[in-house]
Design brief:
Helix content is 51%, strand content 13%. It is an alpha/beta fold and 267 residues long. Helix 4 crosses helix 11.
Length: 267
Amino acid sequence: TEVICAYIEGVKDARRFFDQVHAICPEKPIIILKGGLTDAGARAAASHTGSMAGTTKIWEALFRQTGAISVNSLDEMAETAYCFLNLKPMCRMQAAVIGVGGGATVSNGDICTREGLVVPTLDPETIAGLSEFIPLVNQGIANPLDIPGVVFDENGLVRTFEVLSADPEIDVIILHMPARIFSGALEGLLAWFVGMVNDFAEKHADAKPIVVALSEGARLGMTETGVRGLRQGGIVTFSSLPKACRALRRFAAYHRTMDERRKWDRG
């Protein structure tokens, strides 16, 4: 077992539960969906299992003191567990976000910030490096980046990954793309993209991780097909940017908390 996931309505022995979670968390992440934190949910929990749900503040304290990860839905539980199974540990989550349209790029910055990811200003050397090969006509290299002319140019995209990976303020590269790009008449792009990203990762062992988030608003089946194909190709992929941000934020927060606990334990 690499990750422990639990849906909990109530516990009978709170102290024992706390001690167990506190002891296990440094070894394995524990992701908890706590039911019954609202008045309506608490009434349902009492009816369903006879559990006293406990107050929100008590459970917030448990999450804070143990490092267990709180999620709000089964989808969030699955996406967070997916990060632990497919990404190397990181205590910070500052993202370079690549988009393919001006309006969408503005929205990307807003979404990341609302969901708790930092989208930092790129280092001047990074800006200079990107300027060497990215035309700025109808494109932008401020973070979030708006570079539609580069996304489907293998040499240009690989160079972009290389330059962003060298930026000390960047921990992860998020590529936000429309789901329709990998379906229908353009379906052949999926194999090309998977091969290109995996080849880059193999040749750049120290590069920052590349995460793909497909756009919301596309037909559901189209998005599911794209996510499935990219994940089967070994690329960390989410069905929307907000989902990616939430999962990555929780993933980094866990590692940061455990790192702080280890430092505290060492005195």
